[in-house]
Design goal:
18 strands, 5-stranded antiparallel β-sheet, Aminopeptidase, 2 domains, OB fold (Dihydrolipoamide Acetyltransferase, E2P), 21% helix
């Protein structure tokens, strides 16, 4: 049998599944519990890492990973699967959007992390060194956080390695979301992302986004579970035919719109809308009703996510437009 590839957690015996809490071996990472489900299949196959809860209030995606871990039968799994449903437990329990309340950092902006860094940077470092770089495939599950709504979409990172890029795109497409962004490092709105780090290490990877606005919808969790299972069937990790899904609408760029000032945002568009370049998105006003800033779409495309809270800080995020 193939040796267990994820030293982040103890190796299950072949054909078994174990559950527990991650022991990071790092004194800074104390005070919180990180649950895991580790499946070591009865037959050889790829090693797949699945994470949820990198943003702790993206509930449907977290539950999709919980459901996957509970449903996997190690007697029929080929290969290995490590499910980490709540990568940011401090944010989950404190209901904090985007950042960890321990160090006020966004975990999905600090990869590949630092061995001697802050709380979030150390989580990222250990995940990369003890799980991510050892995987044959990586799926990072997300959704709209507390203040944002979105349409379902996936993103994969184009590295220039044709084999890795093709595998990442194939996984993202077979997941079944209606939109796909193929993102390059140049021009990306943010850096330090988990899935992009994995792709850069030669591990096929993508991020799946669905649900949001601080709401839990079991139908969305089930839909995301179906996407995960379809990817695992395509990798021959679990049994069954791969479900045919419509090809996604493909976007080549993600344009994020940010405010200049802080204020109260009054939108005139909603998530999912098609917009033209220069089209008005709404305006930012102060608490006396004076217009501080008119917000406009930077490019023609579809609004894939939008902040639904009117409280916008300086350089605050308004929405993301998928550009074809």
């Amino acid at each position: 049998m193939t040796a267990w590839k994820f030293p982040l957690v103890p190796a299950p015996a072949a054909g078994t599944k174990t559950t527990g809490k991650v022991d990071w071996g790092d004194p800074v990472l104390t005070g919180w519990d990180w649950p895991y489900v580790a499946v070591n299949g009865a037959s050889p196959g790829p090693a797949v890492l699945v994470t949820g809860g990198i943003h702790g209030s993206e509930y449907a995606s977290i539950d999709a990973v919980v459901r996957l871990g509970a449903s996997l039968d190690p007697r029929t799994v080929k290969g290995q699967v490590l499910c980490l449903p709540v990568m940011n437990p401090s944010a989950f329990w404190e209901r904090t959007a985007y950042v960890s309340p321990v160090d006020n950092l966004n975990l999905n902006r600090v990869f590949p992390g630092k061995a001697q860094g802050t709380f979030s940077e150390r989580v990222a470092y250990h995940l990369v060194e003890k799980a991510m770089r050892r995987a044959d495939a990586y799926i990072d599950m997300h959704g709209g956080d507390v203040p944002e709504a979105l349409v379902a979409f996936n993103i994969c990172h184009e590295t220039g390695n044709a084999e890795v890029d093709a595998k990442s795109r194939a996984m993202a497409e077979i997941f079944g979301a209606p939109a796909l962004i193929v993102q390059r490092s140049h021009g990306a709105p943010v850096s330090g992302l988990a899935y992009a780090t994995a792709a850069g290490l030669g591990v096929p990877a993508f991020i799946a986004e669905d649900g949001g606005a601080g709401q839990y919808d079991p139908a969305i969790a089930e839909r995301m579970l179906g996407g995960l299972e379809n990817v695992l069937r395509s990798l021959e990790v679990i049994e069954g035919p791969v479900r045919n899904v419509p090809p996604p609408r493909r976007f080549t760029r993600f344009a994020w719109v940010r405010s200049r000032d802080a204020g109260f945002f009054r939108p005139v568009v909603k998530v999912g809308d098609e917009v033209a370049a220069g089209q008005r998105l709404g305006n930012l006003v102060d608490f006396y009703g004076r217009v501080l800033e008119d917000m406009a779409a930077p490019d023609k495309g579809q609004i894939l996510f939008m902040v639904v809270s009117p409280a916008i800080g300086r350089n605050g995020l308004i929405c993301g437009v998928g550009v074809e």
